[in-house]
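does this look right to u?? NDP version
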Amino acid sequence: MATKIINGKEVAFHLREELKRKVYELKAKKGITPGLVTILVGDDPASQIYVKNKKKACEKIGIYSEICQLDASTVEGELLERIRRFNNNPQVHGILVQLPLPKHISAEKIIEAISPQKDVDGFHPFNVGKLLVKKTMAEILKSEIFIPCTPYGIIELLNFSGIQMKGAEAVIVGRSNIVGKPLAYLLLAEDATVTICHSQTKNLAEITKRADILVAALGKPEIITGKMVKEGAVVIDVGMNRLAVGLVGDVNFNSVIEKVRAITPVPGGVGPMTITMLLLNTVKAAKWSAGL
Ligand code: NDP
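got this back:
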């Protein structure tokens, strides 16, 4: 059987069309325009691109989007004050602080200052905690919790591709707060059996070879090779490594392609889904704030 290339762009396109209709309806029937503010501190070139792409994606489906660009020398107190003002602005439904922040600012403190009801990235401890205590995906989706965008996008990709998570052995390489850990909770809620690996894991290949669903989120170019993957596995490559040759993932695509049942490409896999789930969370924020 030929390997399925999981087309994130296509799935993202369908979801965004659906969201566009929802935004139109919110405006027409309730007079609500979902609004997202993205705060960028400093002039990191990659962050500039991400922020611009997010704004463009918002505008395409009718979400109001504003970039709050602050100088790299901005002090923590000034940033906290900006967040306080956006928290109190009813036109702003979602607030996103582009990471990483300059070293003199505590990301933890900043994330905690965002109102949990506007935390469309899903990084606030309130949303993280709520996600953790829910047992099933149905329970998560029923409650007003913001699910972190990249893990949420991965679950949607697996669902769209008809990949069974229930009972599957899932291995995630990477334990960050934005990808690995929240994804583990979501896969658990989908009834997978989950293992998380990290830089101190011994015999990594022995563990990855057990996976029915293998997620690579290490940020190390092409480190996952064919020898580390089980025949017939599904591989999700989260990695975005900018090299001279272009953007490459954490998986060595050519060495695993013959072995696996399905795989996400880089680019065009997880990336487009992350922005899509941000749009979805912003629409949810606008609806929830109006009690809808
Ligand atoms: P982090 O750097 O925060 O975390 C990387 C994780 O990988 C850590 O847990 C680290 O272990 C682990 N790790 C590093 N090297 C190894 C190794 N050799 N073996 C096993 N584990 C290892 O990265 P992020 O989670 O933020 O991002 C991961 C990748 O995903 C990056 O390439 C990033 O650009 C990309 N990304 C892509 C997104 C998208 O939309 N496509 C969105 C977000 C991220 P330890 O904890 O022990 O240090």
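The pocket of NDP is lined by residues 150, 173-176, 178-180, 197-201, 204, 217-220, 223, 238-241, 270-271, 274 (CB under 6 Å). idk if thats expected tbh
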